[in-house]
């Protein structure tokens, strides 16, 4: 079984994002970069599936030379090899999905696992675009119900379950008002939600081994994909600040303010 | 003449998902600004009841497709039908509410239409051919103005930013059409609904949320919610700890809410949580820690133990009634 | 010279930081309070390869360079200095084998550490022979193809839980340091006993006991180096380990600085956060400056080793400066916190207690100064 996972390079979710005064971009100085947390969950799920069904995990990232850091992170977690699509400059979700389509056609994986969204663009599109481009089934927002400390978590069992004939997977999805279960024929695209699993830490021996794992370099031109963006980002702005509130001394004052001032109770 | 096609969503229980009313309002605004007309599409086993309900929503035409295959929503069965209709109508914009279904479906529709898409739009700017959208990025720390340059444009609509359409107005024409169904590689297996007597989080006008400060004891949070007819919400820490079901999570990775009144009890206010509730009209924060970031967005902050405040608050509100 | 960490150095740092933040920190106050042995934290460290960093990869170890080890060790100590000391105790005990063992000894005595969790301890210090190693009273005598050890060691890290003991003993007290020889005792043979866990001021998560040898028999094949080479081996080991103890100081100081920065932004006096008062700013600036200076000295002392050079001078600079620096920085952190800093409810008093030990163990700050002076006179 072969699993293709993605590793987008994004700003560390704990870093403070500020917009440049001219609104052209965010302030990049001093920012740290990480693998997209949802992608990291995808890498973990891929590793669990591969461990259970003796498979290979191939990780792909798109960007300049710096994305090799995220590829090495996935390799250190245990992915077998990496594909780096060397591209600098703007790229939108259509472009990303187009590139991933070509990589998937070349690699012929059984499952492509991606984060449901990346925490920079927050678009939540690429997995779905990719599934349609490939003509594959999709199961987005893969989740699971057990708490993180469950036995299942400890035993590192994949939450995405392969059918007995290995021709389909069953996926529990987090949707509005509940959990939906789908069965998707392979090959399929699965996007990960927050609670699918708890990604393992990269071990030091894993990091050392990752240094010698292969990273194959591809380019958009080589893959024959036109990545000229169809989404123009015209301007960035900070969200409007809320007007400063007040601290009230006691419950009586709070009730009075809610009733007479805010008129909400 | 540009056509704005909004997908209205039927819930598994057969009712309209309320966020669709907000999406239709956004669709109406977009139609007005771009000089076009609003169309709706409804797919299900039997969409007639909902079509009737939406007649007064301001749409020109409501397209309905009925088929047994459309009973359970699947992106693979819905996407070709919506995309096919959009092509037939030569629609310029295709949209839906940013619900789990909307987010799952729309990119697949966009892929069929070779369209670019904007997710979670919070505003529609410009007019005529020069329409742009505002949408959040980086967990709502940044708002971007974006222009989609493909002939067809797809958007998912953040319901909290558009007031829902009311029932009045011109009566829409209901047209049924034969859906172009394709074989799906995906099968619906089951849906486990999390039932609650309280209102749905994203639809409630009052939300009472509990955080780590509750130490998992939600009794006081629930009692206040029930008094106010409110939905119950929670911070990520509380959901991760397994104290309450995951679908109560308010935040960037959970539900985005914007009720009239949001009461945060024992929530410190991580950026992640604030992104999910800071559009609320009035925010009340109750926390023992005077330095908790939640106080920076709260209209009314009270530094005290929630287990003391919530019962007293209930008593105070009861006296008003 | 390159002052930027490489991509893989950053990856190692990140891995150690995650362990320190998510695994160690939540439990650190508990182990400080109870002084129980942090078995769970050590097991987790073993799984992540944070134990046995110095053992070369051909002998199943992680095989980090010295510079990589100090980068990682700073993070461990930032989590909890006591835990960090426990973790690097394995490397300290195994260094004599790494530096002076034969291939056969490395295969037998090092490689098993990669297979399963095993702890080792470094038995040098004695009640009457601390800095004065040559006054060693533990004896070894040859009997056929065995040596027999007698005597006792004190303040031995991990001894209560150790599966292997690296022991220094003298074959002839009259020969002073030229009689000292290094042995490895596997398991807990008859005659080897460990005492009760010491009730320490700081670094309370690390296990510290006495070790007593009463006619303990060691096969001659477990003698590391030649007879009489023990002193040289011990000194080379300490040259190698001083950058690590220095990095523990840096981890403590960085934690103290971070807590102080956070607290001083929140705590208000006279209508503004205390970090807007110049008196506090001066303290914070000194803390940051000295922490960074210690880090650079430490990186250099590790880099010199990686280049295959003797680092006695640089590693004494680093260990001495870093230990004294951490004590000062942690004390200042308590000062920034004021009365709250003195309370166990806040994290900084632990840092002050933890820091003190580094001025004392593996060569006191005074001994480091003697070493530095001796090096200067060469």
Automatic annotation (TrEMBL), chain A:
It comes from the Bacteria. Residues 23-227 form the Electron transfer flavoprotein alpha/beta-subunit N-terminal domain. Heterodimer of an alpha and a beta subunit. It comes from Corallococcus exercitus. It holds the Pfam family ETF. One of its GO terms (molecular function) is electron transfer activity. Its cofactor is AMP. The electron transfer flavoprotein serves as a specific electron acceptor for other dehydrogenases. It transfers the electrons to the main respiratory chain via ETF-ubiquinone oxidoreductase (ETF dehydrogenase). This is Electron transfer flavoprotein subunit beta. Belongs to the ETF beta-subunit/FixA family. Keywords: Electron transport, Transport. The lineage of its organism: Bacteria, Pseudomonadati, Myxococcota, Myxococcia, Myxococcales. One of its GO terms (biological process) is carboxylic acid catabolic process.
From TrEMBL, chain B:
PROSITE patterns: ETF_ALPHA (PS00696). One of its GO terms (biological process) is fatty acid beta-oxidation using acyl-CoA dehydrogenase. Keywords: Electron transport, FAD, Flavoprotein, Transport. Gene3D superfamilies: HUPs, TPP-binding domain. FAD binds at residues 212, 235-236, 249-253, 266-273, 287. Its cofactor is FAD. The electron transfer flavoprotein serves as a specific electron acceptor for other dehydrogenases. It transfers the electrons to the main respiratory chain via ETF-ubiquinone oxidoreductase (ETF dehydrogenase). Belongs to the ETF alpha-subunit/FixB family. This is Electron transfer flavoprotein subunit alpha.
């Amino acid at each position: 079984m072969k699993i293709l996972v993605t590793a987008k390079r994004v700003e560390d979710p704990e870093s403070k994002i500020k917009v440049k005064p001219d609104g052209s971009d965010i302030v990049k100085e001093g920012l740290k970069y990480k693998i997209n947390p949802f992608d990291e969950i995808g890498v973990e799920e891929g590793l669990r599936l591969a461990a259970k069904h003796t498979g290979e995990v191939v990780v792909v990232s798109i960007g300049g030379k710096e994305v090799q850091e995220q590829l090495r992170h996935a390799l250190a977690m245990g992915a077998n090899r990496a594909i780096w699509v060397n591209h600098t400059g703007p790229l939108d979700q259509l472009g990303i999905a187009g590139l991933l389509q070509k990589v998937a056609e070349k690699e012929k994986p059984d499952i492509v696992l991606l984060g449901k969204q990346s925490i920079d663009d927050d678009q939540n599109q690429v997995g779905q675009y990719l599934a349609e481009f490939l003509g594959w089934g999709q199961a987005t927002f893969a989740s699971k119900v057990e708490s993180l400390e469950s036995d299942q978590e400890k035993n590192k069992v994949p939450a995405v379950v392969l059918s007995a004939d290995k021709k389909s997977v069953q996926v529990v999805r987090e949707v509005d008002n509940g959990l939906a279960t789908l069965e998707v024929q392979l090959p399929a695209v699965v996007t990960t939600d927050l609670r699918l699993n708890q990604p393992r830490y990269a071990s030091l021996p894993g990091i050392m081994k990752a240094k010698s794992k292969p990273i194959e370099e591809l380019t958009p031109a080589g893959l024959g994909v036109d990545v000229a963006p169809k989404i123009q980002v015209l301007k960035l702005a900070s969200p409007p600040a809320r007007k400063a509130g007040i601290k009230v001394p006691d419950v009586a004052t709070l009730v009075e303010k809610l009733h007479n001032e805010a008129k909400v109770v | 003449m540009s056509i704005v096609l909004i997908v209205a969503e039927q819930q598994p229980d057969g009712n309209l998902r309320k966020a669709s009313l907000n999406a239709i309002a956004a669709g109406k605004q977009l139609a007005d600004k771009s000089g076009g007309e609003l169309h709706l599409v409804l797919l299900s086993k039997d969409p007639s009841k909902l079509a009737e309900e939406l007649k007064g929503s301001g749409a020109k035409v409501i397209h309905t497709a009925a088929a047994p295959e459309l009973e359970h929503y699947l992106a693979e069965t819905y996407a070709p039908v919506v995309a096919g209709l959009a092509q037939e109508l030569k629609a310029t914009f295709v949209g839906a509410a940013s619900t789990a279904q909307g987010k799952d479906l729309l990119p697949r529709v966009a892929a069929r239409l070779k369209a670019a898409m904007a997710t979670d739009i919070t505003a529609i700017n410009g007019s005529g051919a020069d329409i742009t959208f505002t949408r959040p990025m980086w967990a709502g720390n940044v708002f971007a103005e974006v222009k989609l340059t493909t002939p067809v444009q797809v958007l998912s609509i953040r319901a909290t930013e558009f007031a829902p359409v009311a029932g009045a107005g011109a009566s829409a024409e209901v047209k049924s059409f034969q859906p172009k169904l394709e074989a799906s590689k995906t099968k619906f297996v089951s849906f486990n609904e999390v039932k609650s007597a309280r209102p749905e989080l994203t639809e409630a006008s009052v939300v009472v949320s509990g955080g780590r400060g509750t130490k998992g004891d939600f009794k006081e949070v629930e009692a206040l919610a029930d008094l106010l007819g409110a939905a119950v919400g929670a911070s990520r820490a509380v959901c991760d700890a397994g104290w309450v079901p995951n679908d109560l999570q308010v935040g960037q990775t959970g539900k985005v809410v914007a009720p009239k009144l949001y009461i945060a009890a024992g929530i410190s206010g991580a950026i992640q949580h604030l992104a999910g509730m800071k559009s609320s009209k009035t925010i009340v924060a109750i926390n023992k820690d005077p330095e908790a970031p939640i106080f920076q967005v709260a209209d009314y902050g009270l530094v005290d133990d929630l287990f003391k405040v919530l019962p007293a608050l209930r008593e105070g509100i009861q006296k008003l009634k | 010279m390159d002052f930027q960490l490489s991509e893989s150095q950053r990856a190692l740092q990140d891995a150690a930081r995650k362990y320190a933040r998510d695994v160690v920190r939540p439990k650190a106050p508990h182990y400080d309070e109870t002084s129980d042995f942090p078995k769970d934290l050590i097991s987790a460290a073993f799984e992540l390869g944070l134990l046995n960093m110095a053992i070369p990869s051909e002998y199943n170890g992680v095989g980090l360079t010295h510079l990589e080890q100090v980068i990682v060790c700073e993070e461990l100590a930032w989590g909890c200095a006591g835990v960090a000391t426990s973790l690097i105790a394995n490397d300290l005990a195994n260094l004599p084998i790494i530096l002076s063992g034969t291939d056969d000894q490395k295969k037998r005595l090092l490689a098993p550490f990669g297979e399963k969790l095993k702890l080792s301890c470094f038995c040098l210090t004695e009640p009457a022979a601390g800095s004065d190693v040559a006054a060693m009273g533990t004896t070894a005598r040859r009997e056929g193809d065995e040596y027999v050890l007698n005597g006792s060691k004190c303040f031995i890290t991990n001894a209560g839980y150790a599966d292997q003991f690296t022991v220094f003993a003298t074959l002839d007290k009259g020969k002073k340091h030229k009689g000292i020889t290094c042995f490895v005792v596997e398991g807990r043979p008859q005659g080897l006993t460990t005492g009760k866990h010491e009730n320490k001021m700081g670094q309370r998560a690390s296990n510290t006991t006495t070790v007593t040898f009463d006619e303990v028999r060691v096969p001659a094949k477990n003698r590391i180096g030649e007879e009489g080479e023990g002193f040289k081996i011990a000194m080379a080991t300490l040259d190698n380990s001083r950058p690590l103890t220095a990095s523990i100081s840096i981890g403590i100081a960085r934690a103290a600085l971070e807590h102080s920065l956070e607290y001083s932004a929140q705590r208000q006096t006279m209508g503004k956060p205390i970090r807007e008062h110049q008196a506090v700013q001066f303290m914070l600036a000194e803390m940051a400056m000295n922490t960074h200076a210690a880090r650079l000295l430490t990186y250099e002392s590790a880099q010199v080793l990686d280049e295959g050079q003797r680092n006695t001078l640089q590693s004494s600079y680093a260990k001495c400066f870093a230990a004294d620096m951490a004590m000062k920085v942690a004390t200042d952190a308590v000062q920034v916190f004021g009365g709250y800093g003195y309370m166990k409810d806040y994290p900084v008093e632990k840092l002050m207690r933890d820091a003190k030990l580094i001025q004392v163990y593996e060569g006191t700050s005074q001994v480091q100064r003697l070493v530095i002076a001796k090096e200067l006179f060469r």
